Amino acid sequence: MLPLLVIAVIFWLLIVRPQTRRNRELMTMQRSLGVGDEVMLTSGVYGILRALDDPDDPDDTAVSVEIADGVVIRVARAAVGQKVAPLAGTEDEQATDLTLDKNPDPTSDEEN
After folding, report:
1. Per-domain boundaries in the chain
2. Which pLDDT does position 64 carry in this prediction?
3. What segment(s) does the record annotate as region Disordered (predicted)?
């Protein structure tokens, strides 16, 4: 009897407890969603939240996600798998990386 109890406790500690904690964190994240958040759906689709049904209503289960310019889909709130952290300065960094000619002298024989 004691070995079965030990196995049950180990199962609870290794499987049930961590899964319960992950579910709680996921539900907290889904409740904290706001318009304009970039999210990844559980299907792997990235998008920006454009509309939320009433976030205070526990029966509210839908959000609207823009997945391309002008393409908005309505999905279950539970389909939002995670918030995506915005990349800091992506447009500015890309603009500086795209400098075409660092040598303003056109008579130079250097080839890039």
Report:
1. 2-85
2. 92
3. 86-112
